[in-house]
From TrEMBL:
This is Uncharacterized protein. PANTHER family: LP06548P (PTHR22255). Pfam families: DUF7042, DUF7044. It comes from Adineta steineri. Residues 15-102 form the DUF7044 domain. Residues 121-234 form the DUF7042 domain.
């Protein structure tokens, strides 16, 4: 009686400390309530009163349950931050030897698995989709077809064949991945939190993450109670990588499409044989990530072009696109992207892409000088003049007919006495015609920036400078009399006046100096 009384008084119980990796709220498959473990107790087990074992055995704990007035040994087996397994003994009398109680736990003792509640997700252990052979031994015709790799590395989709009565595809988030010898275990939970998805596989080479295993053992129980029991698992034979071409096609694009490109809007585009990626200019955000699936056509009459079907991964579902790339020069291509659902007949994204270059082997079209009216507002940010007189000189350089000069002259808004003269130089990268109305030319300036030069096919009439994303697909509203540069004369007048133009940088220095002088005079007059 004295021993029973002593153990039932929590104030006289010896205490132990449960380490941090075990502390938290856990889900035990098959139980409704969560299991809570803190530093001194475990729900349903009781209060921790002792640890058992030598220094190398730190995970055996003796728990005393005041309601049943007995104690048991619990062996915790940490697998992952979010996965914990344990074996436990029967409940022994309070005066039984702790070592004998823990000794009753054997490898045949039932192994329970706990999953951390509200666990943080972790990357899934595969970098590509895994496809499975049809299992003829299963009685059901509704079978799992693949583990579909998703846009997020923490998520994958279980995709079933079309013989299932309803759409049974399940998206799941991985939250635990651990190994036991050469066997890998993965624990995931469906996005709707209605089921767990657990499977194991064997891979002898840990570094070859891109190579799928031969077999996957999928837990038949949605609660994953049989996580480590392969006898009751569904065996899925993985198709080898050489068979994946029927699911993920290979494409071979012409060399002229490859490389790093810039858009007129300063975005960056990467194209290779399998992928199209568009990023913001700082490369911090991906705007498009499209995987090529197959080439439709590669050439039309009078047009060096390629048409490609592609798909993007939005979460775990694919959106299909049609891409058209047209060759304009070795450093310029036209790009159009449309949705496949429109039959590849409409494009929703148009870009003229270019590669920065220090020289060009083409001559600027319709050489001469073009001038603006007094109300001309440039569509590109190249001058301090909001309104002024502008002159465009095409191919007037004696040494290089591919160069042009765009210059302006205006009075400073703050100091009208100051005349601002600005000049930038550019090169014609490519020039082409797509209809019977306009000649289209893309101009490179400031090393990585570009604009479109539009000219009527009728020689020596006018030019328009536009900053739209595509030189081919233009908004016709941007081409009107008010914003035109009218043809003035040939290059002779330019050669006489070019010596008086300064660069944008020197103009700024001149303005700063004149403003300094003007302010100095004001101060002297004041005092």
């Amino acid at each position: 009686m004295l021993l029973t009384f002593g153990l039932s008084s929590t104030s006289s119980l010896p205490t132990c400390f449960i380490s941090a990796p075990f502390v938290g709220e856990w889900i035990q498959p098959g139980l409704v309530d969560l299991i809570t473990i803190n530093n001194t107790s475990c729900s349903l087990k009781g209060t921790c009163i002792s640890t058992v074992g030598q220094q190398d055995v730190k995970n055996k704990f003796i728990f005393y349950n005041e309601q049943t007035r007995c104690k048991r040994c619990v062996l915790f087996i940490p697998r992952h931050l979010n996965a914990l397994q344990y074996r436990e003994s029967e409940c022994f009398d309070a005066d039984d030897d702790n070592g004998r109680i823990c000794g009753s736990i054997t490898p045949d003792t039932v192994l329970y698995t706990l999953f951390r509640d509200n666990a943080e997700s972790t990357p899934c252990p595969f970098e590509q989709s895994w496809y499975f052979e049809k299992n003829h031994q299963l009685s059901t015709s509704c079978q799992l077809k693949s583990f579909q790799h998703c846009f997020s590395s923490n998520t994958f989709q279980l995709t079933y064949n079309n013989r299932c009565p309803t759409n049974q595809n399940v998206q799941a988030t991985c939250f635990a991945h651990f190994t036991d010898g050469i066997i890998n275990y993965v624990v995931a939970r469906s996005i709707d939190r209605q089921r767990f998805v657990c499977f194991s596989y064997t891979k002898t080479k840990r570094d070859e993450q891109s190579i799928p295993p031969n077999e996957v053992y999928l837990s038949a129980d949605d609660t994953c109670r049989d996580l480590l029991t392969r006898e009751s698992a569904i065996v899925l034979n993985v198709l080898p990588s050489t068979s994946h071409h029927q699911f993920e096609s290979k494409t071979q694009l012409p060399e002229w499409t490859h490389g790093k490109w810039l858009t007129i809007g300063t975005n960056i585009v990467y194209i290779n044989n399998t992928q199209f990626i568009m990023k913001t200019h700082d490369e911090q955000k991906i705007l498009y990530d499209l995987r090529f699936t197959r080439i439709l056509t590669s050439r039309r009459q009078h047009e060096n072009a390629i048409r490609i079907k592609a798909k993007s991964l939005e979460q775990c579902s694919s959106i299909f696109y049609c891409i058209k790339i047209i060759y304009r020069s070795s450093s310029v291509i036209d790009l159009t992207i449309g949705f496949d659902e429109h039959g590849c007949k409409e494009g929703h994204l148009h870009h003229t892409l270019f590669k920065p270059s220090i020289s060009s082997n083409i001559s600027c079209p319709q050489m001469g000088t073009y001038k603006s009216s007094n109300t001309y507002r440039p569509s590109i940010p190249i001058s301090t003049c909001s309104i002024g007189l502008w002159t465009l000189s095409l191919g007037c350089e004696l040494t290089n007919k591919s160069e042009l000069t765009f210059s302006s002259s205006c009075r400073h808004e703050t100091v009208p006495e100051v005349q601002i003269m600005t000049s930038i130089k550019g090169i014609c990268l490519a020039s082409w015609r797509t209809d019977h109305r306009f000649q289209r030319t893309i101009i490179l300036y400031d090393q990585t920036r570009a604009f479109c030069l539009i000219q009527p096919l009728k020689q020596m009439t006018a030019s328009w400078i536009v900053s739209e994303s595509s030189c081919t697909n233009l908004d016709t509203l941007s081409i009107n009399v008010e914003n035109s540069l009218r043809y003035s004369d040939n290059c002779e007048h330019y050669k006489q006046t070019s010596q008086y133009l300064t660069t944008n940088h020197s103009s700024i220095q001149r303005i700063s100096y004149l403003l300094f002088c003007f302010l100095t005079v004001l101060l002297l007059c004041k005092y």
